[in-house]
Amino acid sequence: MKERTRKWRAQLAAMMVALAMIIPGSGAVADGRSTDALDSDQGHADSVSAQMQAGTGAIFNDPNGSEADQYRIRDYVQGLVERAPEGSTISMSIYNITDFDLDLGTEILRASFNGVNVQLVLEGSVAGESPVGRMLLGALGDDLEADSWAVACDDGCHGSNINHNKFFLFSEVDGERDVVVQSSANFTVLNGSRYWNNAVSFANNRDLYDGYMDYFADLARNHTDPDYHRGFEAGDVAATLFPVGPSYPGDGPQDPLLDELDAVICTGNEATGDGRGNTIVRAAQNYFGRPEVAEKLTELADEGCVVKVAYTEFNFGVDDILLPHPGVELRLLEDDPEQNMIHSKYLIVEGGFDGERDQHVTITGSPNISYNALNYNDEAMLRIIDPAIYGQYLSNFRDVWFDEGAVTP
């Protein structure tokens, strides 16, 4: 008990130092560097967050809804932190957390004080520079041999740009074990109030949890590896980890998302697709700046796939590829302070995939379709073959597609 008291006093002292740097009554810090730096298709679907207990399924915020709707992803994660039992382990990779989510930071420290092993990897240039991030780093210490610790990777752990990961692992919570939460959302005010975001949660998937824990341990060691790229499978879930070493002139592009799209089969479905046997590919993307992926989508459209892309920003000529193509439907949600925008990074396939027809595939995670995400960031991407999770993402896609700020470019 004396040791726990000393530990809590040290955490409290660090917390007070950090709190002194937070402007009282501000309530929020505006997202600064950029969207990622700091930050008939219609209808709704139920998700795991409806009851907010640990489980398997998708979680979405709704920037058009109540405060509870807007911060549903954050509240799901915070609830798991609050209920994690003594002796369990929480492991988190956090890109950004601002003083708007001070309560989450405080609950993370409270869990450590209450006997939960808390382990954090922060992006040092973003989360590590925020008052809440500094509070966590100072209170938990950086001794990787201790029960609880927090470390910061400056400008990425393996990559040379940023650790853009947003995943949260719980060894035990709510009577479930091996809980993995993979999200697109950062812990900032705008990531709830104005940005469309998604997360997906898995419970009792030991292979997935172990794979993420191995990756987390590698991140914590903070050793640069520009070609870290690797993956693992866990039942109907496959994970791909970044960065991928940059390609050189004469080499074919190394792009795991292209590999996934190469597995799409556009025709021959009987129970899914557009009603005429054609596969439907839908994407909701914050940033789309890899023309090779855009070219692949036009190829799929030419092969008979229905292709729909909701997006906030195109770059590197992607607009010149997708805008003129008659087989690609587009919806733009611009980054305008007066309306919502997309921060999600997912792509869903209904139809032929990997040699099988009538499949339901969800590809989601932290990476944008950017060269930074591919070649220079620490990122995790999941491919999930599961009709229930697909259905939840489809419903969210419809909500994004018909957001009142969305326009046809």
Automatic annotation (TrEMBL):
Catalytic activity, reaction form: a 1,2-diacyl-sn-glycero-3-phosphocholine + H2O = a 1,2-diacyl-sn-glycero-3-phosphate + choline + H(+)
Keyword Signal: yes
Family designation: Belongs to the phospholipase D family.
Database matches in PANTHER family: CARDIOLIPIN HYDROLASE (PTHR43856), MITOCHONDRIAL CARDIOLIPIN HYDROLASE (PTHR43856:SF1)
UniProt-recorded Gene Ontology molecular function terms: phospholipase D activity; RNA endonuclease activity producing 5'-phosphomonoesters, hydrolytic mechanism
Organism: Candidatus Brachybacterium merdavium
EC number(s) stated in the UniProt entry for this protein: 3.1.4.4
Keyword terms, alphabetized: Hydrolase, Lipid degradation, Lipid metabolism, Signal
Gene3D superfamilies registered for this protein in UniProt: Endonuclease Chain A
Superkingdom, taxonomy of origin: Bacteria
Protein's name according to its UniProt entry: phospholipase D
Statement: the UniProt record of this protein carries the keyword Signal: yes
Extent of the signal sequence: 1-30
GO terms under biological process: lipid catabolic process
InterPro entries linked to this entry: PLD-like_dom (IPR025202), PLD_domain (IPR051406)
Domain Phospholipase D-like as annotated: residue spans: 284-401
